Amino acid sequence: MGISFTVLSSGSTGNATVVTNGETTLLIDAGFSARRIDELLQERDLTGGEIDGILITHEHSDHIKGLGPVARKYNLPIYANEKTWDAMNKSVGKISEENRIVLDSGEVKDFGTLRVESFGISHDAAEPVGYSFYDGDDKLSVATDLGYVSDKVKRAIADSDVLVLEANHDIELLRMGRYPWNTKRRILGDMGHLSNEASGEAMSELLTGNTKRTYLAHLSRDHNMMDLAKMTVRDAMEERGCFYKETDFKLCDTYFDRPTPWDKVSKP
């Protein structure tokens, strides 16, 4: 059937994404209350009972806030590397041993015909990761909460048909914003969050004939706007000689308060 996905919500207040190939349905992160996750799922005609497992990128609260309650409510297995498990144990609460599954950074795991590959990213968490999903010739990659796009990450997400990539902040809006300097320095650093400019720079190297859409994700509500993010990413790509037609490639929105439409990842 190929891969379909919806970004249930993305931003500093919470993050969750659903990926399915019709046989297996996986939730990436659970950064909202269990009640809110149920509401978001219902908006895309899903229930928690249809989820087969939860993949965790890292232990920050905007990615695991509802993890324990959701996993217990629906008896779901949770997949995370050992360092992330150690970092989130207290926050998640009691999880049955059979549902505590270690998925090492860099490991590839098959869920039926849906293949999942974990890859390490740079962020101020215990051992943060992104994920690539494969079904036949389809490839979807999700990479947010990273201070910069390393060569290793570029190799992991290269040739994705669809990409969910962080565009967290506008650098000048962040510098002029109300955050204390230590927080600003953290966000701007190599272990922080990807700026619009850095996202565009990465896309200028990643855009190939395979890549049809990139969803700009994890936007700051204080220091970014979707129109600004898309304009800056596009300008950064063009400055590096990467031009595209809207009919061939599209930058897509994500939302902090509602899901994106279902998107089917498939080659023409």
Automatic annotation (TrEMBL):
Reaction(s) this enzyme catalyzes, per UniProt: 3',5'-cyclic UMP + H2O = UMP + H(+); 3',5'-cyclic CMP + H2O = CMP + H(+)
Domain Metallo-beta-lactamase: 13-218
Gene Ontology molecular functions: hydrolase activity
Entry keyword annotation includes DNA damage: no
Keywords from the named record: Hydrolase
Record-linked InterPro entries: Metallo-B-lactamas, RibonucZ/Hydroxyglut_hydro, WalJ/YycJ-like
Superkingdom as given in the UniProt entry: Bacteria
A Pfam family that the UniProt record links to this protein: Lactamase_B_2
Keyword Cell wall biogenesis/degradation: no
Function description: Counteracts the endogenous Pycsar antiviral defense system. Phosphodiesterase that enables metal-dependent hydrolysis of host cyclic nucleotide Pycsar defense signals such as cCMP and cUMP.
Full protein name: Metallohydrolase
Organism: Paenibacillus antarcticus
